[in-house]
Design goal:
It contains 13 helices and 12 strands. By secondary structure, the protein is α/β, with parallel strands linked by helices. It folds into 2 domains: 128 residues, Aspartate Aminotransferase, domain 1 (Alpha-Beta Complex), CATH 3.90.1150; 218 residues, Aspartate Aminotransferase, domain 2, CATH 3.40.640. It is globular. The two termini are 31 Å apart.
């Protein structure tokens, strides 16, 4: 992944125009209210250490936000503030010993694989099938459980595929965890970015008091990725352990960013609604365009802001496809195998980081790229 991004930067330095689909970072601005609140806090010199789990006012605002959007009200001692990527590592370390197993989707978010690898846990990947719109199949999960399994990670809306699990699938995963006495980490960073479907969380079954741990963030929903405002909702004994790790490694998050976070959570819904309309237009333009190009097909994602098209009909590997696409057209996408072995044959594009005009320009370039590969309509996947 980083090798390709370095190539893109080098090409940009030579003057080549690069259209960046590789970055999972929304290109709209953070809420003005959040920026104003952070500025005011800086003017008040709120630049010193804070409570490691997060300032009480921010944690209480998160309690209210969860109660508003996720149908249960956690206690404040179930909530702690920490960058979401760090929380993935911390949750795994708190719940799993070296040599024990973690079940996760493949393809999936790369940090899962990294945290599992460097802690000497055992990753047990469950292949996501395009025929199932890349949703995690509970039956496939249960087949992977052994006496070494300690944790299941589920991610809906999903990175990199944009899939959103159904109510039945989410409940089935929870019941599997309950049956086998496992912990369940539900990565819900993209849970409010959904189209045409309803989001479902396993937290409805135990309100995060027994086995469910929620991973959430302001990064994507509020376009605040650089603020590093993630948070976990979990049973209090787990929060206590996560807090000790966070205290040891990170100390705390800045006071002024947390006050900005409060302002974001309390900001007008118009900010979110406007961004969702824009994301929908980008999604629809991108997926319709892909499905009109010979040699590529794309399941319409129901969530997040990623497309995960199938490029197997080109005869190129994911790495070869992305490298040639970048050097020949300036369109930078990520190989699907960056997200696990079963991502081979696919590429990931973030439409959160580009405009509709850039999408349309990219589609023209990709179409020409495919013509240069001498692909005919009959070579399209599924033809």
């Amino acid at each position: 992944m980083f090798e390709l991004m370095a190539q893109a930067r080098e090409l940009a330095r030579t003057g080549k125009k690069i259209i960046h689909f590789e970055i999972g970072d929304p290109n709209y601005d953070s809420p003005q209210a959040a920026k104003d609140a952070a500025k005011d806090a800086l003017d008040q010199n709120l630049t010193h250490y804070t409570e490691s789990p997060g300032i009480p006012a921010f944690r209480q605002a998160l309690v209210q936000y969860i109660a508003t959007h996720y149908d249960f009200r956690p206690d404040i001692d179930q909530v702690m503030v920490c960058p979401a990527n760090a929380l993935i590592d911390f949750v795994c370390r708190c719940l799993v010993n070296p040599g024990e197993e973690i079940i996760l989707s493949d393809p999936g978010f790369p940090t899962y694989f990294s945290a599992i690898a460097y802690n000497d846990f055992i990753p047990v990947g469950v292949k996501l099938l395009e025929s199932n719109d890349f949703r995690l199949n509970p039956d496939d999960v249960e087949k992977k459980i052994t006496d070494k399994t300690r944790l299941i990670i589920m991610n809906s809306s999903q990175n990199p595929t944009g899939s959103v699990m159904t109510a039945d699938e989410v409940e089935h995963i929870y019941r599997i965890a309950e049956k086998h006495d496992l912990y369940l980490l539900s990565d819900e960073v993209y849970s409010r970015i959904i189209f045409d479907v309803i989001f479902h969380s396993p937290s409805k079954f135990d309100h995060c008091r027994e086995r469910t741990i929620l991973l959430k963030s302001l990064s994507k929903v509020f376009a605040m990725s650089g603020w590093r405002l993630g948070y976990a909702v979990a049973p209090p004994p787990i929060i206590e352990k996560l807090y000790l790790l966070s205290q040891t490694i990170l100390s705390c998050l800045p006071h002024f960013t947390q006050l900005g976070g409060i302002a974001a959570l309390e900001s007008s819904p118009e900010f979110f609604d406007n961004n969702m309309r824009e994301l929908r237009q980008r999604r629809d333009t991108l997926t319709a365009g892909f499905n009109a190009i010979p040699g590529i097909s794309c399941v319409t994602p129901q969530g997040a802001f990623y497309a995960f098209p199938n490029i197997t009909a080109t005869g190129l590997t994911s790495d070869e496809y992305c490298r040639q696409l970048l050097h020949q057209t300036g369109v930078c996408a990520l190989p699907g195998n960056c997200f696990g072995p079963h991502g081979e044959g696919y590429i990931r594009l973030s439409y959160g980081s580009v405009t509709v005009a850039e999408i349309e320009e990219s589609l023209q370039k990709i179409n020409q790229f495919h013509q240069n590969l001498n692909l005919s309509p009959s070579s399209a996947p599924g033809a």
